[in-house]
Amino acid sequence: MTETMTHPSLKADIAPAAATRPMIEIRNVDKVFGNFRALDTLNASIREGEFFSLLGPSGCGKTTLLRMIGGFDEPTSGEILIGGQDMAGKPPNLRPTNMVFQSYAIFPHLNVSENIAYGLKRLKLGRSEEEKRVKEALAQVELSNLGPRMGNQLSGGQRQRVALARALVMRPKVLLLDEPLSALDKNLREQMQVELRHLQRQIGITFVLVTHDQYEALSMSDRIAVMFSGQIAQIAEPKEIYQNPATRKVADFLGGMNFLTASELAVDGRQFRATLPGIGAITGHLSGKEITDPASAIIGIRPERLRIVWEGETADHIVTARVVDRNYYGEMTSLMVAIDGQAEEISVVETNDFGADDIPVGSVIRITYDRDAFIIMQG
Amino acid sequence: MPTSAPTMPAARAGSRTPGSRWLQTEAGKGWVTISPPLIYALLLLIGPIIVIVANSFWSQDYLTIDRSFTLENYKAALTEPIYRDLLFRSLFVSVTVAFVTVILAYPVAWFVSFRGGRYKGLWLFIITVPFWSGYLLRILSWKVILGYKGVLNETLLYLGVIAEPLSSLIYNVNAAIITLAHSWAAFAILPLFVSLEKLDRSLLEAAADLGDGPVRRFLRITLPLTAPGIIAALMIVMIPTVGDYVTPKLVGGKDGVMIANAIQVQFGKASNWPLGAALAVSTMVIVTMVAGAIVLLIAGLKRLVK
Amino acid sequence: MRPGALSRRLLAAYVIVYVAILYFPVLLLPVFSFNDSATPKLPLVGFTTKWYASLAGNEAMHGAAWNSLIVGVSAALLSTVLGICAARAMTRHRFRGMAAASSVIMAPLILPEIIIAISLLVVLLGLGVQLSLLTVILGHLLICVPYSVTVLVSGFEGFDPSMEEASRDLGETGFGTLRRVTLPMLAPSIVSSLLVTFTISLDEFILAFFLSGTEPTLPVYIWGQLRFAAKLPNVLALGSILIAASLLMLTAAELFRRRAERKMELRP
């Protein structure tokens, strides 16, 4: 057992290296609970210093994967490497990772300082060093005056900060965050998203975040892995995930997407061509992804990439559509329109600056699209 | 670095035996954790009960045990009038006590659960405390209350309700039933309270919304949904009371003797262990059958009120 | 009067009468124990503490009290240790057979004590074990563990399992986690379990009656004294002391249980 290599006291002594070196490697990881396959041959590589999110609906296996990285669960088969070392059989206390739990798990019988010093106590740093580190950690999360407050007398946001400080004070190579913001109300959550992102940039260690909130993942992450039923559907940067989802499921999970009926669809090299009834012939790029089965591929467009052509305006591609429903969202209006030849109703999101909120249901409007807005996805 | 370190799954698997691997699983950890109390209960409860069952099929000649199989003890236990009567009486007492206790306790449990508010815990504490204190003394106390010159008779005399002391208050089955019902009243509250607490209050609101008044709501929602608690309360009173020893001895008199007294005699003075064992096993089997019948009965009643 | 208000009052009155009847027999004997009469009957004749005073020089009673103390403390400590194991397994692990295992452990809760008593008696005598305080402890352990489990299960349920995971995550070992997180968090429940099981053991009669041999516990001693009508006032005094002790310990247990609840509670 190479216990000395990963003793927590050495967590601090990681020299910063090239940002592209893999910090965590997940190789063919399976997890089976009885007859249920929770994780199915997962492969992923998380880089050093990266803010990496595991995004998916509840029950998709994202938390199971995070817990395996932290050592709270063992894979049924496959391996997980952290910093190049196989973690098989290593309990959480011998891994260079620390976790912020969904419930925060703040020890209610200890005060804030004691909570933060909990792990340091085992490192036998000496009293002054320990106090110094606790003080720094408190300052880092802006809780300097709360040190003596007991663990069960904190608000949700404060507990979240203590949990963060308690993990970071251990100077882990990797910080694991299990839905850390889901218990907070909307305003605090948005504020904490910004703070977490800043903190990660400032410390420079790898963060792995589990979340079911697509906006949280999009706004905070360097890269996102989207998971469905135990499988990773796509790993990419936020912009790519949103603008060029690999599959129909990914597209759906990350906000509204119009799926279009195509009478003809062909993939040719890195290009695709399609004829969309009622809209016309279009072309597009595959971008970074592969379409393994063109027969089941599907064409889509995000609602905000469709625009209304107002009276007196002209555009290259004009499609006439009938408004069947209208939903008002304050600064925006979403129109559901029917286009002849298209099987599904199509959603158009328009700002209210020009009076989209006044368009009556039943009226016929003209819409247009950006040439590069069409996306091809695996069905 | 990542690819240059070859991993050897075979070697890794070999370093851990299947046994130690099992200990790492959820089931393994669970069994290891539960094993000290489990082994204790198996050795000192289940083992001895098996021995008692075995004993009931043996016979005893003065001090030596003959281990050849016989049903003589059961024949005696179930056909000899003295034992048969004791068995029936014990059963009658325990079933009566169970129903009386649960019927009297239900409104109290309902009150604590629905009207207890902030003081639910305090109410529950106040009600259950007598159960834990002075088992012998409580029974003795009933003897003092129900006796010929007891508190009840004296009070009734003083109030002029009766002209001379009633001798029918103590040393009969009724005295045993009253004493046992009092002993177990507090305990019966607990399962009833738990099942009432689990009852989703919005179900009652929904029933009210759909036109049911308080009585119908109680009969159609509360009662059926707390049936598990009622069953649990009946069992938790009925099964232990069937084997009560002290109450019949102190307040039951000659007419209130129960099966436990006969069992004790066989393990004490009479020293016929096999017969005592057969009496004990018969009691448990019969009380289990009655318990099963009650469960079925309540399930049937539940289907009736819809 | 509003419809329903009457039934509310009736119910409240019923509950009060119910509780009064529950306590009446428990509190009646202490009243007689201060009564200056050799038999417990109405009307009361005068206040005295002589029945209590005469207990002071009663060697046999002191022996029984000492025996009860030994049995009670041992049963409380051991059943709480076993209870911690069982409660932990029941709340922290999910495995096949758990329901069966826990029903075996909880069975003494519902079995008639006489069945437990004779089963143990037959086996112990069969193995040639001398009846002693040890055999009483063995029996009391059986009936105390289920109560201990009940108290501790709510203790375990009250605290988030990720507390223990957090401790492991912060570098602590399994044993260290037990010492620094699990036990401090469970402390009020553990104290509550100790007090409740001690009270049960102190009060228990049937198992002690069958298993105690020549060393009686207090209830067995009291049972022996009941044959002598003249000793009844002393028995009442002793019984009153026992009831008072039980009430005190149960109240303390309840206070600790509440403290446990408050400790787990998170202020919003």
UniProtKB/TrEMBL annotation, chain C:
Transmembrane segments: 12-34, 64-87, 99-125, 131-153, 189-212, 232-256
UniProt-recorded name of the protein: Spermidine/putrescine ABC transporter
Localisation per UniProt entry: Cell membrane
GO cellular component labels: plasma membrane
Membrane topology, from the record: Multi-pass membrane protein
One Pfam family, short name: BPD_transp_1
Keyword line: Cell membrane, Membrane, Transmembrane, Transmembrane helix, Transport
Matches recorded under PANTHER family: PUTRESCINE TRANSPORT SYSTEM PERMEASE PROTEIN POTI (PTHR43848)
Family note: Belongs to the binding-protein-dependent transport system permease family. CysTW subfamily.
Boundaries of every ABC transmembrane type-1 domain copy: 65-253
Keyword Thylakoid attached: no
Protein species of origin: Hoeflea olei
Biological-process GO terms, alphabetical: transmembrane transport
InterPro entries assigned to the protein according to its UniProt record, in alphabetical order: Bact_Polyamine_Transport, MetI-like, MetI-like_sf
